[in-house]
Amino acid sequence: EDKVVQSPLSLVVHEGDTVTLNCSYEVTNFRSLLWYKQEKKAPTFLFMLTSSGIEKKSGRLSSILDKKELFSILNITATQTGDSAIYLCAVGGSNYKLTFGKGTLLTVNP
Amino acid sequence: NAGVTQTPKFQVLKTGQSMTLQCAQDMNHNSMYWYRQDPGMGLRLIYYSASEGTTDKGEVPNGYNVSRLNKREFSLRLESAAPSQTSVYFCASNRGYQETQYFGPGTRLLVL
Lengths: 110, 112
Fold this sequence. Notes:
The complex is a heterodimer of chains A (110) and B (112).
Chain A: E1 3-7, E2 10-14, E3 19-26, E4 32-38, E5 43-49, E6 55-58, E7 61-66, E8 71-76, E9 85-92, E10 98-100, E11 104-109
Parallel strand pairs in A: 2-11
Antiparallel strand pairs in A: 1-3, 3-8, 4-5, 4-9, 6-7, 7-8, 9-10, 9-11
Chain B: E1 4-7, E2 10-13, E3 19-25, E4 31-38, E5 42-49, E6 56-57, E7 64-68, E8 74-78, E9 87-94, E10 102-103, E11 107-111
Parallel strand pairs in B: 2-11
Antiparallel strand pairs in B: 1-3, 3-8, 4-5, 4-9, 5-6, 7-8, 9-10, 9-11
């Protein structure tokens, strides 16, 4: 059974801090790892990492994939209150399904 | 483009009642998915449809049925609602295998 574990489950920081969110996985025939941000409603897509794209960056957010050690990290630098959200990690295996972790609740205080 | 839309936004049911959650996408996606999200549990896949005309069980299919009505629409039916089905339900879609999934706004369901 595919498994995704995120840590920490929750995190409180001050504006301007840098945070690192972790995602480890066990999946049959890994094909992709995705990061989503969930505020009040639907998860919104951040990054997809695959064998051909193990590092992604967008503004203050960046992510890397370590296929050997089976984990990914999501870094957010110079955090803002608008970064407060649940961050979800999901992994795709040998079929159409994504397996999600439980998420990390990030709270950024002013 | 509206993306992925879901109706209703919120619903209260009594135990034993039935209802259908509707999902539609206008992105010409081949695959569609139904998830439920409970506190501390993350997103769990209920059913999915890899392409029009096919459906498959996910991680937590018991108590649910689905219909892929056409390429755009994928509905989730609760035949006899139970309090354990109180949750937020998300529909998602993508072009297919190895593609990013895009989510609808969710339906909050309360079963009393």
